[in-house]
Write the structure tokens for this entry.
Amino acid sequence: MEMKLVAYLRVSTIGQVEDGHGLKIQEELVQQWAKSHGHSILTFYADEGISGKIETRAGLEEALSAVRFNSAEGIVVASLDRLARTLTVQEAALQQVWSAGGRVFSIDTGEVMADDPDDPVRTFVRQILGAVSQLEAGMISRRLRRGREHKASLGGYAHGSPPYGFRADGGVLVADTKEQGVRQFMKALRQEGRSLREIASRLNDSDIRSKRGGIWHPQTVARVLAQSDGSISESDTTT
């Protein structure tokens, strides 16, 4: 039976470092899955380099809203840890979908079934796997943090991947001429009144790639536009 679904894609700094499971790869996996199962993907929503609560993720909030307001019958993700690597966020997002009568699909494991009082093991297993994912994320974050601290002690650039428009050169953060030009182009389009989605489409149509060589999404554009011109902030390196 064909279903009208929305797809949610997410990559955090942790995901980028650990497995390269970028937005483009996730999008391709979702498209292949939808085609093989006979489902329609209405819209792709994405968050890049963002973790935390649902309200801090514009892409996830939009995807959940699509189900709440009945424009979509459910959500599909490449894997459940793309929905969240924090157990409380995972469970909150799932409950929102199920409360609205929607369904959740994970490409690697199939449908994430709603809780059943007659089958408490179902909930137990899902939450145990979510807790394991959270632990893995915490261990990776700790390792990256200690690596940055060690690098900083040696006098090198120690803030993770440089934000768009900048690169690390000899341990120093310097402006990247080409990327700075793209940033100015984005700013000019925004000043003309273009939406984030229009700017993302313009960049993709012009074959301009994101920092990691992927396609642009509205949330990625918003993140670049929000960066300061001369320095980075802690939010630019959120994991």
Remarks:
- Strands lie at 4-11, 40-48, 74-77, 103-106, 110-112, 166-169, 172-175.
